[in-house]
Design goal:
Elements (H helix, E strand, L loop, with lengths): L10 H20 L15 H4 L19
InterPro entries: ACC_epsilon
Organism: Streptomyces bambusae
Protein name: Acyl-CoA carboxylase subunit epsilon
């Protein structure tokens, strides 16, 4: 069940939103069972970490943070 909790959408806006939800549900239903969707590259946490690895040494712990 879908409920509009804020605003007053027009019938066209509501139909467009429901079309997106139904299309997404159809894609997920047609996927083989047990298959995981492939994550996009932009959501890969390794993208934020950069390409340089911290150099070993006595102060290396200060360069091993995870960027937020």
């Amino acid at each position: 069940m879908i409920k509009v909790v804020k605003g007053n959408p027009t019938p066209e806006e509501l139909a467009a939103a429901l079309a997106v939800v139904r299309a997404r549900a159809a894609v997920l239903a047609s996927a083989p069972s047990g298959a995981h969707p492939v994550a996009d590259a932009w959501s890969d946490p390794a993208r934020l970490a950069g390409r340089r690895l911290p150099q070993p040494g006595p102060r290396a712990w200060g360069r091993t943070y995870w960027p937020a």
